[in-house]
Specification:
about 475 residues; 6-stranded mixed β-sheet
Amino acid sequence: MHLIIATLHVRESAQAVALAAGCLKSNLPEKYRKNTKLIDLLPDQDNDTILERLLQGKPDLIVFPLYTWNRCQIMEICRRLKQQHPDLILVAGGPEASADSIRVLKQGQLDAVIRGEGEAALATLVDQIAHKQPLSEIPGLVSKTSGEPVPGAALCPDLEALPSPWLERTLPLEEGCGVLWEVARGCHFNCAFCYDTKGHQGVRPLPQKRLKQELELFAARGVSQIWILDSTFNAPPGRGRKLLQMLLGTAPQIHYHIEAKADLLDDETICLLAELQCSVQVGLQSADPKVLSPLQRKLDPQQMIRQLRKLSDAGVTFGLDLIYGLPGDNHQGFRRSLDFALKRQPNQIDIFPLAVLPGTELYEDRDRFGIAGEEQPLTGPLITAATLPMTCGKVRYWLPLPISSTIVVGRSVFFCSCARHWRQLRLSSSKPFLSGYSRPEATLVRNCRQRTVGDQKQFSLCNWLSAGKN
């Protein structure tokens, strides 16, 4: 039996690591693992080329990890695969498949969808297919013959029993490469716009012994940077300190990208971060507690100021995340949040449109939040739709990509890293861009100052944001 696990990445980068595929393959029995191939795909490849690559090895089963950025393209690819090869078995997993199982199953003409953590479920599924058994009684599996209700998400009961895709050499390691490093699953918090906690509550750390062995391997292979996959590494603070001590003691030469919760950063943690080669990202999202409260997020602005000042005084490289288009926010409110963030003198600020993701509270209760939008994206993968009834009116279309903007503070030059997508936005008075945020495309581009950073052209948006509504 020949199996392919195909990952369609956001783009080619050091973060384009097929971690989910590696975890799935590593957990398969050896007799199936040796005939399993991992394929990396990129969105700029045309679908004909992708189809040719997928079918080269004449697979019996193809599995796709499904995310917001690749759902539309993967669904189209699956439909074409089914049309050309009706007997080919197609399965999807990942956040999109878990949250929107029935629609994904139908849209892609799939044979099955795996909800939740897929390692054990896929191993059982492959064994049943190999023995020509009907697909049944697999935790988290939704098939064409499944009835109601949809089964709950699968959960690996024992993370210690899961093999490491790094220690098993399933995923390649090259000198100077980047690594996505999973150190825990789950999240202590339950933000209305986030899917991290869905399917289970709380945090389940991976075994310390495994993490140390992986870290030693990364150091020996010359890995240059690691993105630590832990929604809030310092919740609780003691767990975060233990991790930082291991990083400093085992591989201090590697640069680490870490997500932290500012109000849980104690002095000892900040001192450890200051010793480490790292960049810390803090999810501010908005500086208005009244905007955040309905979204299950708490903010004490003064506490945030104190903690970020401590990071800055300690010389820790840190960035802040902001979301525009949150329910209850408006143009003036977002500008205040941006001013608040700039005054904290971060090394960067990443700005994203509101993403209304299937399976989240924001999606399930969109009427209560006053959210309106198209059912399908016009040009891209990310849902961005919000109604701001008291101030901003409605968004009536989806944005093509998150606008991840970087402010280098020094410290304060503001650049948009997705400027190449502005033409896709087609901003005009007839299609408001978060009414109150809107700008005709010509004005927006005219106010942008083009600059080359590395091999990418980027644009300053300072004039646009500071211009207000005029």
